Amino acid sequence: MATLHTRTSARYMMAPAVLLLLAWMLIPLGMTLYFSFLRYNLLMPGMEEWTGFLNYKYFLTDPAFDDALINTLLLVGGTLLITVIGGTLLALMLDQPFFGRGIVRLMVIAPFFVMPTVSALVWKNMLMHPVYGLFAWLAKSVGLPPVDWLAQVPLLSVIMIVSWQWLPFATLILLTAMQSLDEEQKEAAEMDGAGAISRFIYIVVPHLARAITVVILIETIFLLSVFAEILVTTNGGPGTQSTNITYLVYSLALLQFDVGGASAGGIVAVILANIVAIFLIRMIGKNLDR
Amino acid sequence: MGNIRLENVKKAFGDAIVIPDLDLEIENGEFVVFVGPSGCGKSTLLRLIAGLEDVTGGKIWINGRDATGEAPASRGLAMVFQTYALYPHMSVYKNIAFPLKMAGMDKKAIDDKVRGAAETLNLTDFLHRRPGQLSGGQRQRVAIGRAIVREPKAFLFDEPLSNLDAALRVAMRLEISELHHQLKTTMIYVTHDQVEAMTMADKIVVLRAGIIEQVGSPLDLYRSPRNRFVAGFIGSPKMNFVEGDKAAKRDAYAIGIRPEHMTLSTDDGQWPGTVRVSEHLGSDTFLHVDVEGAGMMTVRSDGDVPIDHGVRVFLTPDEAKLHRFDADGKAL
Ligand SMILES: Nc1ncnc2c1ncn2[C@@H]1O[C@H](COP(=O)(O)OP(=O)(O)OP(=O)(O)O)[C@@H](O)[C@H]1O
Ligand SMILES: [Mg+2]
Asked: Which residues, 6+ apart, have CB-to-CB distance to A178 below 8 Å?
């Protein structure tokens, strides 16, 4: 693609695909934008009318919105923290030679292949259930009262479930990065008198910086829209304790049938996601330049 | 201070025995070069001394102390790797300062030492750069800088110049020799480059398949190789070997004669032959001659001999500089 000629023809050849993608993206976005300025409730068909920014006003001043915003940030931040730290430690472990490493690696990757709804159900009914759950049994067997996870610490429970799903992804990326670290560099550091911990801090972690950036960027995109896990486990409750923005939009549209309000929420979510993305890229994107 | 003694050192990787049994004494301040063909265990031996590999058997003494079980850091040796092994995310300054920081030295002292080393190695202008922004020769100097600030008992170099181009290799070779004269620290240097071995070493250790074939000064090895392997390995171009009746006439199974120890004539001499290839280097000419009854031989001649392909010539060996070997390859 070096000459002017090849570049021009490449542009023509890409055009249909680009146009299709644009339409795919812009039409739903445009319709959402349009609905967000309408009073549009499925319970009152045929009464749609232009309301200007009223939907936005209601959505943004709704006390549930503040909760959802905070929950979204906590969910994203908490999961990132757990997966990045846990992933680094797991990768460090899986990088060591030990018996049965192949099997263990496979098992660590496995949760990534489980559907979110399925894993949420497993966590809800088999692990966190206050009567039949494994955690409850563990607590009882050491004489503690069982915790009703989904009722008492709903957001933490959702964070745990989502982290469990994303840990393999982080581990995999970080393990690959760790394996690309030049053996001689570690040996040089060893000769320079760096112990295992210093080697980890000064050699391994800086080497992983780029991979960690990638993990954070990709996970953030997906974690901003966590939905299935909440729907299956807590339904956003109790109250709004585990409602994030995605779930709030869903409850407006399909539980309260307020399409206009939900559309406004959707647009707000898009704007928020973009703000987060800009911050992220500003903050850590410079890691990728190197 | 740095004398190193290897006593019955053995090394095996699983079933593969790389070093069967090796004894070696390295004096304080010596420049020792390990040479040998690829895969003979030079790097392995160096890594055993460094402590990056555990010995399978035997002992390693450093300054009279048994260091066999010691960690690499506590042996007080510094190593320069073939690929430099610089830390890519640290500046040159931080790279050089790293071992001092690990030793817990205070900032001021570190700064003095790093700047001193940078001065010696002409790195002052590059201190703020990352290794990725340096040329191969500069990276090599950073690696050396990182080694010298620690003031180690000995330096270990594993083919440090093999990634550099020919001109830079010569320049760095001189710099390292110069550094050795300045610091007077023991240096152990692995190479498969003849010229590096001959020019830099106080003592050359010739290895083959993990066994020491001969130890001695470069000229010792050149003048009196103990066997055919050493004779063939030291010297460039290689020594010519002749078996059969020419050797039998001199009471040997094989004789060896270096290209520079034969005289060339176009009218008469002992061994007639035909020139196949002539390499004119300007200062010298190397002629590859098909000698009757002895096969190909290389002979060195003056830079301006007007002899080319197909010319019939006569070679006469200098009998005093001829090497004789028995059937096992031992020198007689
Ligand atoms: N970690 C290892 N596991 C198994 N075998 C090894 C290992 N390291 C080296 N070897 C073997 O030991 C022998 C000596 O290797 P070594 O790297 O010391 O050779 P070398 O003399 O440095 O060669 P070169 O000049 O090519 O660098 C080789 O046959 C090699 O295959
Ligand atoms: Mg080697």
From this structure: A91, A92, A95, A204, A207, A208
Between B43 and A285, whose confidence is greater? Answer: B43
Under an 8 A CB cutoff, do A193 and B85 touch?
no
Q: Which residue has the higher pLDDT, A125 or B87?
A: B87
Q: Which of B52, B94, B149, B156 is the mutation pick for testing A, counting most A CBs within 10 A?
A: B52
Domains of chain B, each with CATH number or no CATH:
4-230 (3.40.50.300), 238-325 (2.40.50.140)
Q: B67 exposed, middle or buried (CB, 10 Å; 0-12, 13-18, 19+)?
A: buried
Residues of A within 8 A of B103 (CB-CB) are: 193
Query: ipTM beyond 0.90?
Result: no
Report whether B3 contacts B27 (CB < 8 A).
yes
From the CA of B13, give the closest atom in ligand 1.
4
Distance from CA of B30 to the nearest CA of A (A): 21
- What single-letter amino acid sits at B135? S
Domain boundaries, chain A: 54-289
CB contact under 8 A, B83 and A189: no
Name residues of chain B where pLDDT drops below 70: 1
- Judge: A194–B98 Cβ closer than 8 Å, yes or no: yes
pLDDT band at A38, cuts 50/70/90? confident
Average predicted confidence (pLDDT) for chain A: 86
pLDDT in the model for residue A289 = 59
For residue A224, pLDDT beyond 80: yes
Q: What is the DSSP letter of B227?
A: B
State the fold for domain A54-289. MetI-like fold (1.10.3720)
With a CB cutoff of 8 Å and minimum separation 6, the contacts of A195 are B73
User: Above 80 in pLDDT, residue A9?
Assistant: yes
Mutate to test the interface with B, among A181, A185, A192, A197 (most CBs of B within 10 A): A192
In this structure, are strands B16-26 and A38-39 parallel, antiparallel, or unpaired?
Answer: unpaired
List the helix and strand counts (H, then E) for chain A.
15, 2
At residue A234 the predicted structure's pLDDT band, cuts being 50, 70 and 90, is confident
